[in-house]
Input
Amino acid sequence: MTPLDQAHTEMVETGEDAARLRFYERLADGELFLLLDQEPEGETIAPRVFPLEDGPVVLVFDREERLAEFSGAPVPYAALPGRVVVRQLAGQGIGLGLNLGVAPSAFLITAEAVDWLAALLERAPAAVEARPERFVPPGNLPESLLRSLDQKLALAAGLAASAHLAGVIYDSGHRGHVLAIVGAAEGAQPALANAVGEALTFSGLDAGELDVVFLGSDDPVLGRLAPVALRFDLPLREEPERAQPAAPGSDPARPPILR
Output
């Protein structure tokens, strides 16, 4: 059972919106193997499109072995983050056939669901200014949010040292929660803020609010916040043993061109 199998099983068995969101979050965060019509040409890839009664779909698998089992012979494919596949298909009227015939998570994702997920992934946090007056231990936060935060921060290996979640009272009297990210790498702040925003979105808290602040390890604010906060330690980035040619879609800043 892969993480996507487990999320799919939970979604089907419970029928809960929260489980449905977790499934789509796993789909976006994971690596997918996209069946192609021919070998990639530079940054251009041509997925094999299957015309079904409910509309055209492309096929993706969460394990290379499952793609091989489905095809029964060597076939061209591209390994891409799920979010890249979804964003590239959005608005084209093409759905996703996930693990069809080879896994418990076999599932047909409609073109409308692809567009909906792409829209969720495009949400960006807004920048605001506020002055914290006091930090307090975090309140009774939903387990779904804490789990999503933990998973998102684990995927941000090497982008920061740690994160600290606490309750906050601002000088305006407004109360909320703040996640202080410590030691963020240069240029990583937007990606980290977006990851936290996604954690909030996929936790199912429609009216949820979580502020994000970036601090240095010697920032005096951290001395006030850390003693009452829930701490997350981000893993270190594993350095590759040797340079490898970049596969299409492996650089988020240069998504592949779907033809």
Summary: The longest strand covers residues 162-170. The mean pLDDT is 88. The first helix runs from residue 3 to 14.
